[in-house]
Structure formats: structure tokens, C-alpha cells
Specification:
Layout: H1 5-19, E1 23-31, E2 34-41, E3 44-51, E4 58-62, H2 74-83, E5 87-92, E6 99-107, E7 113-121, E8 128-133, E9 138-141, H3 177-186, H4 191-196, H5 204-213, H6 227-246, E10 252-256, E11 259-264, E12 275-278, H7 282-302, H8 304-330, H9 334-347, E13 357-362, E14 367-372, H10 379-423, H11 427-439, H12 445-448, E15 462-465, E16 471-474, H13 478-488, E17 494-498, E18 506-508, H14 518-530, E19 540-546, E20 567-571, E21 579-581
Antiparallel strand pairs: 1-2, 2-3, 3-4, 5-6, 6-7, 7-8, 8-9, 10-11, 10-12, 13-14, 15-16, 15-21, 16-18, 17-18, 17-19, 19-20
Helix pairs in contact: 3-6, 8-10, 9-10
Length: 582
Amino acid sequence: MAFDGIVISNVVRDMKKNLIEGRIYKIYQPEKDELNLVIKNNRENYRLLMSADASLPLIYMQQSSKENPMTAPNFCMLLRKHISNGRIVDVYQPGFERIVVIVIEHLDELGDLRRKKLIIEIMGKHSNIIFATEDDMIIDSIKHISHMVSSVREVLPGRKYEFPPAGGKISPLEISEEDLASRIRNTPSNAIKAIYQNITGFSPVAAAELCYRAGIDGNMPTDSLTDDDVKRLCGEFAKAVDDIREGRYTPQIIMDGYTPVEFSSMDLTMYNDKTVETRDSISQVLDEYFYRKSAVTRMRQKSADLRKIVSNAIERTAKKYDLQLKQLKDTESRDKYRVYGELINTYGYNIEQGADSFEALNYYTNEMIKIPLDKTISVMDNSKRYFAKYNKLKRTYEALTELTATTKSELDHLQSVQTFLDMAIDESSLSQVKDELVSCGYINKGRYGRKGDRKKPKTKPLHYVSKDGFHMYVGKNNIQNDELTFKLANGGDMWFHAKKMPGSHVIVRLEGAGELPDSTYEEAARLAAYYSSGRTAPKVEIDYTERKNIKKPAGAKPGFVIYHTNYSMVAEPNIVGIKEEQ
């Protein structure tokens, strides 16, 4: 996660655009290190979230609000006293640091016009929210930092506010190309560190992106960089700084499957193996990123028990399947024993009693073979023994062929359940996966049917609309896959699924249209690829056919279908740009 100076400069730009001249309508402190300001401006309400939490410091304009405590903390009450109904007159980012200063104009107790500063420092464990006068005298802060905690600077009421030390770094808006080149060459580290250790506001992610754009291995030591490497790196840096100066930001979320892994205000071209989603504003990115991140974390916590059950079942079934395959391989010698028995019966009159082997012509292959014999028994008894071995292995082969098919089907089903557990984004879809595990006997029904589990939330499939206006539905689990394919879809609708891997059924409703446009085929295939176990692959092969060609064998597990008439295409597991209906 890179809440760096670039992201903050983007946030500040949006704040300037939306909050300048706005009035502070409400002030909340839902957490001990967090503030929410409701600001009215241009007939709109904006919610500004500020957090000095050590593990997750941030500032952005959020869409929703948290529940607030019944009694406001002292810091919140102080702000309400001074700046409630105050007017925001300026927002700036000093020195491209991870600091935002909000200048607020208000009337004091005597009715005189005053200015105060709300300073938000986004600096990991050193993050803070500081309330100060116009001349930088600290009135109070959300965290008090004494000389016992920090020998660098105190943050206490009555002290003069000082910016954190720059540590030798320089603002990207002020550094020259020659100075940057010199700093890179003289920093004894790799290229990525040489950038973020010298430039204010540049995170390791931003530095790695510059190296990638310049065609340089970011882990390469600086003393091994050529003059041409340094020149290209400085050139890419200059382009990035020009974008920042001109306000050309690219707010993005980087997704690894269903999990958000990164966000940025610059175009992260180095993540070519992941899904890159662009949004209209950095606040949209941050709001969605943290919502998705918390949703994924929350669902993983709630599904932990189910994951353990499924993981153990997969491990147990995989071991059983491997053992059955090994036993099946051992039966491959059965025909050899049948041939031995037949050849002994054919040439037995030429074999001397007490011989331990004999050679004969195999009339199936026209080759001579040597047949071992047990000299303690008669020749005909050797023949009977070989036929007995053959019949035993034949029976074993027939039984194991059926068993391995059943076990493979069970393993495929469990792997599909595991895929849908990874895809679960709400309680209802998780509940249906649990229902499926109960119906298949992996969870004890008596234990599952507790009082709290009786009322199950309803769940609907994911619903998308193609650019051409066709409705596309995606199953969230195996039970929903069956409902989509065999209840919702008509015979003429199109059905899509990732080839030979667990995933969602995707149904495209034709609704009287004669033929789907190519773009809708492509979008439906991308959905099928994204909602499958192949979502991390660059390309996924997708089968598609009319719904009437899909059959469900009697007694088959949820989600399992067969089809013999289909077409195939290759799609990227990327759903950026496909409109989702709520």
C-alpha cells in the first residue's frame, strides 16, 4: 500500500476543488485516532475522513460514514468549539511531504475573524492530527508526543509546531535532473531505494514503477547502472513530475483476483500480471480499496472454519485419489498374465515338469517371450495361477476405474467449493456454500442446524450488462450455478464457463435477440475467466454454447454439468469496464 506524497498531492488537489470556501457542518471522532468532517459546499455535503492510526493512516473524501460514539472525545469537543461552521480557505501539501494542512477561517468568542490550521501527518506510526493557530502554536493534537517519546520534536499544547525533519530528502518539484542523477549514483543501494531515499513523497512502489518504465531492474545496485540507465531513469522521473505539476493523475486499484493489493495516483504499468482498475477520483479509489480490503479480510475470517473443512477434505481426497491411481497403474500387467496362461495352455505339452521357465512365440505380437514358472507345481497349475492373477487384476481394474472417476469428481467438486470460498463477498453467498457442504455430508447437519443458522439470507447472482445492453448473470457458488443454468436461463440463452477448471456459470440472456454481438461474447468470456480458478492467469480458455446443450447427470453434485456441443475462445480474466448492476 502506497499512501505516498503523490497520492496525497492528488487528494489535496481534489480537496482544493471541492472544499475551498466550504463550511464545516459537523465534526465527529468515531475512533480515538480518527476524525470525520462533514463540509457543505456548492449545495453538496462532503465527508472528509482523517486517520492517524499507526497501521492505517489516511485522508480522503469518503462516501459513507461510521457510527459515532454517544459522548464526543475531548479533542473533538475542542474542534467543535473553535471551528464548527468555520470556512475552509486553503488546503496545501508542504514540501511534497505526507502532510496536509487545512486552513480554516472562523469567528472567535468576541466575533473577531481568526484562522486556525488542522495539520494531518500521514507517517506510519508517527502519524498525527494537530490543531494549531495561524502562527503555528499547537492548541492540541490527537496524539501527544513528549520528549520522552521523541527526541526530535515535541507535539504538545503550547509548543511551536515544526514540520518533521526531511532527513536529507528533497521535493520532486524542486530537484534538478543533475542533482537527481548525482544522488542516484552516490547512494550505495539499489535503484529503487536510491529514488525513495532521496526524493520526498516517493514510495518504493512509485520508485519501482519509474525503474520499470525506464527498462531497469530496480534491484540492480546503483554502481552498476550505466550513464544511459541513469539518463532514462531521470527522464521518466521528469515525466512523472510533469504529470504531478499539471494534475494529470491516474487513480488506480490493483486487484489480484478478488483481493485489492495496491492503489496509486500514477499509472502502474509494472502490474501487467494483475487487474488494473481506474477510477474517476483518488477518493473513489481509496474508499473502494479500503472497503474491499476490509470486506475480503472480514469474509476470510468468517469463512476460516469452512476453509479448514474444505482444505482437509481436499487433502484427504487427493491422497485417496493418488493411491487409487497407483493401484490402477499396478493393474496394467493384467493382460500379461492372461497371455502367459494362454501360451502355457497352447504350448504346455512341450514343457518339462520341474522347469522354472520356458520360451514361446507370442502370437499377439509375433515375438518370443520368456514365461516364468513355479517348478513346485504342475504346468497346468501355473496356467491356472496366471489366469487367477489376471481375473483378480481385471476385477480390481474395473472397480478402481469406477472408484477413481468418483474420487476425481469429488476432488473437482471440493476444488470448486474452495474457489467459491475465495470468491465469497457477502454473508449470503457464504451461507449457500455452507448449505452445499452440509448437503454433501462434509458438515454435520445437526451441528449446522443450530438456532442461529435457521434464518439464511437470500442471495442473488452477480448481474452485469454488456455494452450492447445484454444482461449477463454470474453464479457465486455451485448451488447458484445450477439455479442460473437450469431455472433462470432459457434454452436459447448463451452459457459460458472456464474450460476444465472450477468457476462460475455465466448466462447471457438473449431475450428475443437473434444473435449476440462479438463484444458481448468477449465480455461474457471475460466474466467466466475472472470468476474462475484461472483468474490469476494471463489468459483462460472459455467454453460457450447454447443453454439447451447443457445437461446435468442424475445424482451429480451441485454445479456439475456435461455438454458435447460447444465452441471455445480465449479471454483475459479482466472485467474492467463491464457495467455491474446492483
